[in-house]
Design a protein that fits this description.
heterodimer; A: about 350 residues; mainly alpha; ABC transporter involved in vitamin B12 uptake, BtuC; globular; B: about 450 residues; alpha/beta; Rossmann fold; 2 domains; 4-stranded antiparallel sheet; about 15% strand
């Protein structure tokens, strides 16, 4: 993965971007607009102004964290498909403890984020236990836990966490003093994106540059060898799993703290799943996955603008990331076969 | 050969068959055209049964087939080629390597291929099975098929082949009819081209007895009432034995008789009953590789690519495991220095310590595994088929490293299926047949007698 030859990486990227561009042009023609106008509207909506850039980065925060979480788990050989559930667990924890924590805002924020990360990490435990003790593949159990989390959020905002001041299925709002303020006027972006990017760097360093990361990579690449060589295989997997859940939980907590200010139903727009797609696109390399996450966020923000300006339905633009991921996977598999 | 069978693409050149250009995009195309490769490491589907795997391999198998017909195929192939294929309904991943290899060979023969390529097929076969395999290969050849056999064993070449080509490091050294040359001549060429040099020919193991006498009273490895607990393997009988520092014991067995399970259970990779002590420390019977290593154990697994090394990590990274240097950050300089020292000391032919472990040849991979395992001066070394599939020079190097380690006080238990390999160690032998250990045999026991014990004909 990290050793993919440079030439091959360029070939993969070129193949993928041609496919994505072709998809975009095709979609614009299908919607009856000039492809050029559509692309221009998309680019402007993604990065054409301070507000547009802020929108992209705001959307990117949760995606970067779930993408980094997915990469960490995948590199250790844990197929954590439950980032969506861990994201929701983190958001629910943030919404639960947020209104209770009064006092000075920095301490309250730290408390909210700690609770969110912890909730995300705890949400992997049933899957980790079933895998270790009963041999249940974590792919299945984490997917099912996503459904449990979505149902739990739905129940919480209509029950214990419901805002007593209204009939909506939503929790009480965080105090304005606690919520993260925008970094600059005229934009929604907050310091949350900086937290996400710092964690992407930290996880990159952890995997590539620490003894612990080397052991984790060895476990992911060759589980049988890791066991025979004498690595604490089960513990390494559990740690990667929990850390990946904590990152997704933190994403949920930051979403509440920086964007929504409260929990409601339905809460997630699929941040956990898009994070997995970004990790796949980035070859499970945390920095590449984070870049892919920002790209996906830009496509998301841009496509809303494209719909507004040219009438190309934004739903069509969500096809583009899908085409991109498929093209990359296909190109990689083909090149790997040729090089073998 | 992987290129001919469509598994890998050629860098240059072309392949002709019956005078026509033949290039198969994938193994399926090659198989359909009657060209089959039996790889050295089988590519069976672990989660499927023996009967299912053979059905997949048989090009004549109908799309819908009853399980009874599939079971009948297992019986038919086992009988007509004299190969022991195991229970038709057994899952392949629970079977020993030898049985899996026999299944792969039977599957290749099932389609009566016109061109059959076998890569080291006899490494895991008993002498009887080897004879039966050669007889069926001869029948295929007499029926007009071409058979290509890749082997390190000269005796097989002269027993079975019409023509031979000697390859050394990817170059053809000599091609001739077997009737025009002698095993001695080819053996000489083989050793010369492998540049055995260094210490490869150094086969004069000191008497382990002298060493162990000095350490009398201490035990490195002690088994009492020990038996591996593995549901799908042969039921092993309770074993008691002990090794003093510097002592070497060879367990000789055909695959599937439980010798490798004994070794794996000692190394903590399988649960066992009874008692195992390494350096005086009892190991948990549930199987814990970490406890085995903490007590001073080292393990060389049978499957170096699956269990010995992490192919996608560099040599330096592999040699740094399981405890890479560095407190917070990896100490890359220390890793590199350690790797260069180890690779040099074990004569591993490599481009750089940053080269991927998977890019090395089998012999160099095995030397790398030994370099890592012996780095910690283990009290006990358990090695399974340490020279299987290696060329002569590498096998000699591996053997002499193990003997060196014994000389400096390591007790070693070596499992092998090859009487010749067993005798290289010049150490006491025990034959394992259906989970039962024979009495200790002297190193000079003739290979024929060992073969009969291994096949259960005596003892």
């Amino acid at each position: 993965m990290s050793r993919e030859p440079v030439v091959r990486r360029f070939a993969v990227a070129a193949a993928a971007f041609s496919a994505a561009a072709a998809a975009l042009v095709g979609l614009a023609l299908l919607a009856g607009t000039s492809p050029l106008d559509a692309v221009r509207a998309l680019a402007e909506g993604a990065a054409g102004s301070r507000a547009a850039l802020g929108e992209t980065l705001t959307r990117a925060t949760a995606l970067v964290l779930t993408a980094v979480g997915a990469s960490l788990a995948f590199r250790a050989g844990v197929l954590n498909i439950g980032l969506e559930g861990q994201f929701l667990a983190g958001a629910a924890a943030a919404a639960a403890v947020g209104p209770v924590l009064a006092g000075n805002p920095p301490a309250a924020r730290a408390g909210i984020l700690a609770a969110a990360a912890l909730a995300g990490a705890l949400w992997v435990l049933p899957a980790a236990y079933l895998e270790a003790r009963r041999g249940v593949p974590e792919v299945l159990s984490t997917i099912l836990l996503n459904l449990v989390a979505a149902a739990a959020v739905s129940g919480l905002v209509r029950g214990p966490l419901q805002d007593p001041g209204g009939d909506y299925p939503q929790s009480r709002a965080l105090p304005d003093a606690v919520r993260l303020a925008p970094l600059a006027a005229g934009s929604r972006v907050t310091a949350a994106i900086l937290v996400a990017l710092a964690l992407a760097l930290l996880v990159t360093l952890l995997l590539a540059g620490t003894p612990f990361g080397l052991k984790m990579r060895a476990t992911g690449l060759a589980p049988a060898a890791a066991r025979a060589i004498g690595l604490p295989h089960a513990r390494l997997r559990l740690l990667a799993f929990a850390a990946s859940g904590a990152l997704a939980g933190l994403a949920g907590g930051l979403e509440v703290l920086a964007v929504t200010g409260r929990l409601y139903d339905p809460f997630s727009a699929g941040a956990g799943y898009t994070g997995i797609a970004a990790a796949l696109l980035g070859g499970s390399h945390p920095l590449a996955a984070a870049s892919s996450a920002i790209l996906f966020a830009a496509l998301g923000a841009g496509s809303s603008a494209m719909q507004r300006d040219t009438g190309v339905p934004s739903a069509l633009a969500t096809i583009v990331p899908g085409v991109l991921v498929l093209a990359v996977l296909a190109a990689r598999a083909r090149l790997a076969r040729r090089a073998a | 050969m992987s290129i001919a069978a469509g598994r890998l693409a050629a860098d240059s050149g072309e392949i002709l068959r019956d005078g026509a250009l033949a290039s198969y995009r994938d193994p399926k195309g090659a198989r359909r055209a009657g060209l089959v490769l039996v790889p050295q490491h089988d590519l069976l589907i672990g989660a499927a049964t023996v009967a299912d795997n053979l059905a997949f391999l048989d090009p004549a198998a109908p799309f819908f087939e009853s399980s009874r017909s599939r079971r009948a195929r297992v019986r038919r192939l086992a009988e007509s080629y004299g190969l022991e294929l195991g229970a038709a309904e057994a899952r392949v991943d629970g079977l020993p390597v030898g049985t899996r290899q026999r299944i792969e060979i039977a599957g290749a023969l099932a389609g009566d291929p016109d061109v059959l390529i076998l890569d080291e097929p006899t490494a895991v076969l008993s002498p009887d099975e080897t004879a039966a395999l050669f007889a069926s290969l001869r029948r295929r050849a007499d029926a007009g098929a071409a058979v290509v056999l890749i082997t390190h064993r000269l005796a097989e070449v002269f027993a079975g082949a019409d023509r031979l080509t000697l390859l050394a490091r990817g170059r053809s050294v000599r091609t001739c009819r077997t009737s025009e040359t002698t095993p001695q001549e080819i053996g000489g060429l083989l050793l010369a081209s492998a540049e055995i040099g260094e210490r490869g020919n150094d086969f004069h193991p000191s008497k382990h007895a002298a060493q162990s006498a000095a350490n009398a009273g201490t035990t490195s490895l002690e088994l009492s009432g020990f038996a591996p607990k593995q549901a799908r393997a042969v039921r092993a009988e309770r074993i008691s034995l002990s090794l003093s520092p510097g002592e070497l014991l060879v367990l000789l067995a055909i695959d599937g008789n439980g010798a490798d399970t004994i070794a794996r259970a000692i190394a903590g990779l399988e649960p066992f009953s009874g008692r195992v002590e390494v350096g005086g420390t009892p190991l948990p019977p549930s199987g814990d590789p970490l406890a085995f290593r903490a007590a001073g154990g080292a393990f060389v697994p049978a499957d170096r690519r699956e269990e010995g090394l992490v192919a996608a990590l560099s040599l330096a990274e592999n040699l740094a495991l399981p405890n890479p240097p560095g407190r917070v950050l990896l100490d890359r300089a220390a890793m590199r220095a350690h790797a260069e020292e180890r690779l040099g000391a074990f004569g591993v032919r490599h481009a750089s310590p940053a080269a991927l472990a998977g890019s090395l040849s089998g012999g160099n991979q095995q030397k790398t595994v030994l370099a890592r395992e012996l780095a910690r001066r283990p009290g006990v070394l358990v090695a399974v088929h340490p020279t299987r599939g290696l060329d002569l020079a590498s096998a000699a190097a591996v053997t002499s490293r193990i003997l060196d380690a014994c000389r400096s006080g390591t007790a070693a238990l070596v499992v092998t299926a090859d009487p010749d390999e067993a005798q290289l160690f010049d150490a006491p032998l025990r034959v394992v047949y259906r989970g039962r250990l024979s009495a200790a045999l002297s190193p000079g026991t003739p290979a024929a007698a060992l073969g009969r014990l291994m096949a259960g004909l005596e003892g």
